[in-house]
Amino acid sequence: MTAPAMAALAQPALAAQAQSVDWLAITPPTLTAVLALAVLVTDLFLPERRKPLLGVITLAGLAAALLTLLPLIGENRATFCVAEEAGGACSYTADGFTLVVQLLVLGGALLTAVLSQAAVRDDRLPAGEYWFLLLASAAGAALLPASRDLATLVIALEVASLPAFALVGLRRGERRSSEAALKFFLSSVAATAVTLLGVSFVYAVTGTLHLTEIAERLPAADPGLHTLAQAGVALTLVGFAFKTAAAPFHFWVPDTYTGAPVPVAGYLSVVGKTVGLTGIALVTVLAFPSYGEIWGPLLAVLAAVTMTAGNTAALRQRPGRRHSAVRLLAWSSVGQAGYLLVPLAAAAYTGAPDEAVGATLAYALMYAAVNLGAFAVVALVARTRPAGRLTDHRALYATHPAHALALGFFLLCLAGLPPGVVGLFAKVAVFSAAVDAGLGWLAVVMALNVVVGLVYYLRWTALLFRPAADGATALPRAVPRPLTAAVALAALIGVALSGAPQLILRFTDTGLF
């Protein structure tokens, strides 16, 4: 057969695998990734005294990436699609769900960048590497919610995670930082390996990696492969559960948060958690709806155990222990992960899984703003009291009344008490999702954990307004402008949402289905 004839025969097969590219749809993660490379290259040519310019470039780039979401509002765009003859499945989709999560992760990265301006200078972190790693991780986090096949999901998960390992260990010569990075890395690698094993099982059963095609082929799979499919469904969730800090994959959290720079700990608590939750939502409700009897009970038990373990450990934190402030926020984030998992578990039992996923997103939006705000105030106190004890926040109101009021507000939002109305509404949305799905026992467990959370959140809030202990030195009144800006921005978002909590409840219509 002649070469032209062979080429003519191969042409239809190649056309069936042709990938269309919608550049507008992929702009948010692409722009963030390009910006990361630009920062890395620019760092080579900047003298040391001009390194702060890299932080400004990062802020401007993340703001631009957020603006690129505006043309996509109300759109439902898909790209990297195979031709209809090959199934017509797409690997990247920009819908309502994608935009909400990208808003959350890019907004969280922007707030982290504001908070990091002072930390990079004070902790003598290498500016070029720090901003490159932050942007690279944010690019992976922005890619993940748009991913609609298991290969892209896992790649996005690792792109978001690998730079985070380096960020945790970036403080040179700090033994605790290196140890935290190593623990984070080893446990994450093990979780990813288990996830890849689960993905291989699912592929063996269905012969595809696209989420929508998996959902179609799983119910029609060979009955002899039913056990293999069940194992694949369960194992695929492990890596995402690790990122969410769901028990029993949560033990890395306190040591990693205390060893990392404070802004990085805040970033992991918000963006890292969002990445895990997004992956769980996509693989369960899009790829495995027919196996709800497997992942529904599994997520419900994970939610109950996670919130109980996190809140119990946070309650036991000793106020005078070194790094107890960050450790309390670390364990609190584990407890909050349990609440965030409740609607995802409920999605297996309800006829409206879209609303259940939306409840998780609404809670995550509230949590992201106020938790990063709390880390910003902790970073402020740690500037002069590096031990980072809870008792170091005593009498904060006497020297920094605005920051003390802001931290009190953030803690009340996390507790779900007025004036943190947005926290109360978010908890009600999660609680309602459990009740509507018939998970009454999970709603009871959540209610009990909320009561436990009230104790340690209110205990910390009370410390802010107590008189200073005898012999205690007052905190200096001078505060770096980036820290004040981060606290003010987080407080502004929290107050706006508390004044109009229906704004986050509108995200229950995610457009995922």
List keywords for this structure.
mainly alpha; globular; two-stranded antiparallel sheet; 20 helices; 513 residues; 71% helix
Would you summarize the structure shown here?
The chain is mostly helical. It contains 20 helices and two strands.
Question: What characterizes the major β-sheet?
Answer: 2 strands, antiparallel
Question: How many domain units?
Answer: 1
Q: Provide the helix percentage.
A: over 70%
User: Strands of the largest sheet, in order across it?
Assistant: 1-2
Strand content: under 5%
Overall number of strands: 2
Shape: globular
Average residue-wise pLDDT? 87
Distance between the termini: 48 Å
Describe the structure.
The structure is a single chain. The chain is an all-alpha fold. The chain has one domain (2-8, 19-509). Helices cover 71% and strands 2% of the residues. It has helices at residues 3-16, 27-45, 52-67, 96-122, 127-143, 150-168, 175-206, 211-217, 226-244, 253-259, 262-287, 292-315, 324-346, 353-382, 396-399, 401-415, 421-436, 440-465, 481-499, 502-505; strands at residues 77-81, 90-94. The protein has a two-stranded antiparallel sheet with strand order 1-2. Belongs to the complex I subunit 2 family.
Per-chain topology:
Blueprint lengths: L2 H14 L10 H19 L6 H16 L9 E5 L8 E5 L1 H27 L4 H17 L6 H19 L6 H32 L4 H7 L8 H19 L8 H7 L2 H26 L4 H24 L8 H23 L6 H30 L13 H4 L1 H15 L5 H16 L3 H26 L15 H19 L2 H4 L8
Antiparallel strand pairs: 1-2
Helix pairs in contact: 2-3, 2-5, 3-4, 3-5, 4-5, 4-11, 4-14, 4-19, 5-6, 6-7, 6-11, 7-9, 7-10, 8-11, 9-11, 10-11, 10-13, 11-13, 11-14, 12-13, 12-18, 13-14, 13-17, 13-18, 14-16, 14-17, 14-19, 16-17, 16-18, 16-19, 17-18
EC number: 7.1.1.-
Subunit structure: NDH-1 is composed of 14 different subunits. Subunits NuoA, H, J, K, L, M, N constitute the membrane sector of the complex.
InterPro entries: NADH-Q_OxRdtase_suN/2, ND/Mrp_TM
